[in-house]
Amino acid sequence: MLLKFIHKFYIPVLFILLTPCTSNAFNIKAQPVEVFPGDVIFFKMTSDETSLPVAVFRGKEIKFYKLQGNEYGALMPVDINTPPDDYSIDVKSGVSLSVKIKPYAFPTKKITLPEEKVTLSPEDSMRVEKEYLMQEEIWKYATEKSWGGGFISPTDTAVSEKFGVKRIMNEKKNSVHLGIDMKGKSGTPVKAINSGKVVMRAELFYGGNTLIIDHGMGLLSVYMHLSGFNVESGAEVAKGDVIGFVGMTGRATGPHLHMSVKLQGVSINPEALMRLEF
Ligand SMILES: [Zn+2]
Asked: Which residue among 56, 143, 166, 196 is the one 20 to 30 A from 95 at the CA level?
């Protein structure tokens, strides 16, 4: 049973140890090795080599960051549109990782919103475009790792809508829910899912009062519809710090927290991130 568990979550791919205390140790593990579209995979590598290997998944480089000593880590987003399949990732000569992307039938949901929040006026369209471009710049951040240990839930409440739900708004416009919704009355505390720096505190058309935290390694968490903020832009926050409060500002039908995660510009399932063990 224990072996089965270990096998499922950690597959040591290759471990070369020529002699004890050799300087040529190389080892890489992936967690998990079976995922759904929208999930995230953590790679942990031990290497004493002078240059890091360059691994690519579907045309995108997997970027390793130094963890400590000769340990390096990489978080790899699996885009929600990735075709389910068995993939082999070449890490370096003679070393490859197997990753299985399993199919997942994301549900469809019909929702009704105020018409002016679905069919936008020219002014609102311009505002949305400007806010989109502003955030596109933030998704490019690739700072050093500032998170530590596992990622926590932003509230003590349950998830009311999962990642990947296909929404049909007012029976005409489609969108995919690229985050999770957390239940909560107005004023419920919202916590930072890990340590990092507040890189945006703004009032957005769709998101209402919105905070973005940069955790490093290209990972950013986003908190929307807040009734109020508890941190300033530029503040360093620790995991669990109260950063704001649940509300219904922006495009929201009722009080809740919409939380999303961008990893190297790709939206990933926050619940998959929270399942990772470090
Ligand atoms: Zn949402």
From this structure: 143
For residue 178, the model assigns a pLDDT of 97
- The alpha carbon of 277 and the centre of ligand 1 are apart by a number of angstroms equal to 25
d(CA 138, CA 205): 17
In DSSP terms, 41 is beta-bridged to 76
Model pTM score = 0.89
Number of structural domains (the chain) is: 2
194/16: higher pLDDT: 194
φ and ψ of 264, to 5 deg: 50, 45
| Distance of CA 166 from the midpoint of ligand 1 (Å) | 11
Residue 166 domain-assigned (yes or no): no
Q: Are residues 126 and 48 in the same domain?
A: no
Quick one: pLDDT at residue 1?
A: 47
User: How far is ligand 1, taken at its centre, from the CA of residue 180, in Å?
Assistant: 5
pLDDT at 156: 97
**What's the gap in Å between 91 CA and the centre of ligand 1?**
36
Q: Which of 264, 277, 274, 267 is nearest to 63 (CA)?
A: 264
Convert the pLDDT of each residue in 159-178 to its tens digit. 999 999 999 999 888 899 99
Interval between CA 197 and ligand 1 midpoint (Å): 23
Euclidean distance between CA atoms 177 and 224, whole angstroms: 13
Task: Determine the distance separating the centroid of ligand 1 and the alpha carbon of 160, expressed in angstroms.
Answer: 9
Residues 13 and 55 in one domain: yes
Cα 137 to ligand 1 centroid, rounded to whole Å: 22
Give the closest residue to 190 by CA, choosing from 140, 218, 236, 224: 224
Instruction: State in Å: Cα 46 to ligand 1 middle.
Output: 38
Q: Which two tokens stand for residue 172?
A: 């005409």
